[in-house]
Structures are given as C-alpha cells and as structure tokens.
Amino acid sequence: MFAFLILIVPTFILAFWAQNKVRSAYGKYVQVPSRGNITGREAAAAVMQKAGIYDVEIVQVRGELTDHYDPMNKRLALSEHNYNGTSLAALGVAAHEAGHAVQHKVGYSMLKARMAMIPVTNIASSLMPFIMFGPFVLGLSALGGLFLKIGVGCYLVMTAFHLITLPVEFDASRRAKQELVSLGILGQDELTGVNKTLDAAAWTYVAAFVSSLGYLIYLLSMLGGNRD
Questions:
Q1: How many structural domains is the chain composed of?
Q2: Is 179 a catalytic residue?
Q3: Which of 97, 169, 179, 190 is catalytic?
Q4: Does residue 6 carry a pLDDT above 50?
Q5: Domain that holds residue 121
Q6: Residues 55-77: what's their mean pLDDT?
Q7: 68-92 pLDDT tens trace
Q8: What is the pTM for the complete model shown?
Q9: CB neighbour class for 63 (10 Å; exposed up to 12, middle 13-18, buried from 19)
Q10: Calpha distance 83→81 (Å, rounded)
C-alpha cells in the first residue's frame, strides 16, 4: 500500500493537473483572435507547403482537442474550433500537427522510432485490462507472478513509447512556433498565446510518461516482493 501511495497516487494528481492546465490554457487562448485572421486549416496547409508537402489531407473531426496527424494515411485531422478558428490556440495546435507532417517528410528519427513501436504498444495496451483484472475475475492467484511479469513487460513497452513521444511532441511545437512567425501568420508578440497553449499540452505527455513509469516501478516492486 505504501508503494502504491508513493508511486501511483502522485501520477493521478499530475495527470489531473496537466489536463486542467491544457484545458485552461486552450480555453483562454481559443477566445483570442489572431490579427491575420487565418484559419487553422490555412495555417497547417501553409506550414506543410513550405516543407514541400502536398499529399497530406487536412480534415475536420468532431470533439475538442481531438487533433492529430496520422502518418500511416497521411491525414491531418483538426477539431472544429481549430479547423475553422482563427484564434491563437487554433493556429498553435494546427501548426503543431503540421509539424508532425514535416517530421514525417524529413524522416525525423524519433518519429520513425515512435511509428515502429505503435503495433507492439497497441498489443501491450490491449492486454492491460486482462493483466490488471484477470487474477481477480478468474481467481488465478497461483498465476499472480506470471500476470505480474506480463504486466511489467507491457508497461516497459508503454513507458518506452511515452518516453519517445516526448521529443516528438516538443520538436513539433518548436517547428510550429518557428513557422508561424517565419510565414508571417503570427507576429512575434502573438506567440505568447501559442506558447501557453502548446506548453500546457506538453505537460499531458510528460504526465503520461510519469504515470507509465510509476506503474512500471510499482509492478517491479510487487514482483520483487513475490520473490522474497
């Protein structure tokens, strides 16, 4: 119980704080219009065109902060507010996703590593409910050690995935800020809103890594305890 309180509870607090931080920053700067009145879609297209990218489809998707770049299908998805919006938050998020497309175009090594890990990470993620609740539902106490070992393997994969994700996201934000100014989409003084929005979003990736690492260490401590 002590290990759980030390390793797991703080990760819940960090994740909750990070989610509130990004929603607060986004909620604030999605209401601040940019002077250039350029939409998120137009900004994303401009960033990609400068990099010589013309084969990525930009589409609108439902939800809030559901924006993402799909490298497998070369598809950049923007939520409604960011697709049509002209706010500082919309431009920051749209340019960030376009930054991922640029990473894909130039063969950014960390993005390639992240893409390579997706299949095994999906398998590990799909196993987690069974690993966590299987012994309780099935009553397989004798196999507890085996479940722990598999759980450690799954969280090892997921922790590595979240670790690789950090430089990918940070680099995409760096590219976004740089291109928004160099293309004349935003003035240097308007970057404050973009910085606040993207920096807050970065904390969600940090929280995901810390949470995964916390669970990994927790399971390792349980595994070590079973051997005593």
A1: 1
A2: no
A3: 97
A4: yes
A5: 2-227
A6: 96
A7: 999 999 999 999 999 999 999 999 9
A8: 0.89
A9: exposed
A10: 6
